[in-house]
Design a protein that fits this description.
The complex is a heterodimer. Chain A is mostly beta strands. Chain A contains no helices and eleven strands. The radius of gyration of chain A is 13 Å and the shape is globular. The N and C termini of chain A lie far apart (37 Å). Chain B is mainly β. Chain B has no helices and twelve strands. The relative contact order of chain B is 0.33. Classes of the chains: A mainly beta, B mainly beta. The interface between A and B is medium-sized, with 26 and 25 residues.
């Protein structure tokens, strides 16, 4: 069974540009989570999508947004990039109806903002 | 709000020695606790999880963790470390009612001496 996949693996942008990151969950999983892993800030929860709807978001500005498609894949958009947005962005998916199910992580997209 | 503390940023052990990585959490209800491992340039792999029941949890790669409610701890142990265990280890608590979004500790980087 294929795991969570993310694309691209690396992304280089300049300040002020927009970045789009993509995530495909494990087959059958309907929930997708996004986390940011920035140097010195650790792993922080960004967004949670379930059944096509945004269900929760972390303490990030509105220029971080995303969506979930009918096939449950997800896209994270970061507008007006700032230098401090440079980080590893991890996507995780979860299946099942219960919140007790485990989140499985993808390999991440490394975003570098110059 | 929940929080996780991993007091040790770096730990170095000799191959074959035992290992204990510390994790303390703060959460107002019954915690859902996880240990993940991250190899360089990789995503997160689940080692083990605790939801309820037996407080000693067995995981993959020979790891185990013990939940101690009185100490708010969930320490990870391994009786004999292998060189391939060198990685960064993250403890996390899941927030019931928020889609089980994960709050991570700062991580502990494990180095293994030959």
């Amino acid at each position: 069974e294929a795991g969570v996949t993310q694309s691209p693996t690396h992304l280089i942008k300049t300040r002020g540009q927009q970045a789009t990151l993509r995530c495909s969950p494990i087959s059958g999983h309907t929930s997708v989570y996004w986390y940011q892993q920035a140097l010195g800030l650790g792993l922080q929860f960004l967004l949670w999508y379930d059944e096509g709807e945004e269900r929760n978001r972390g303490n990030f500005p509105p220029r971080f947004s995303g969506r979930q498609f009918p096939n449950y894949s997800s896209e994270l958009n970061v507008n007006a990039l700032e230098l401090e947005d440079s980080a590893l962005y991890l996507c995780a998916s979860r299946g099942g109806q219960a919140y007790l199910e485990t989140q499985y992580f993808g390999p991440g997209t490394r975003l570098l903002v110059l | 709000a929940q929080s996780v503390t991993q007091p040790d940023i770096h730990i170095t052990v000799s191959e074959g020695a035992s290992l204990e990585l510390r994790c303390n959490y703060s959460y107002g209800a019954t915690p859902y606790l996880f240990w993940y491992v991250q190899s360089p340039g990789q995503g997160l792999q689940l080692l083990l999880k605790y939801f309820s029941g037996d407080t000693l949890v067995q995981g993959i790669k020979g790891f185990e963790a013990e939940f101690k409610r009185s100490q708010s701890s969930f320490n990870l142990r391994k009786p004999s470390v292998h060189w391939s265990d060198a990685a960064e280890y993250f403890c996390a608590v899941g927030a019931w009612g928020a889609g089980n979004m994960l709050t991570f500790g700062g991580g502990t980087r494990l180095m293994v001496k030959p």
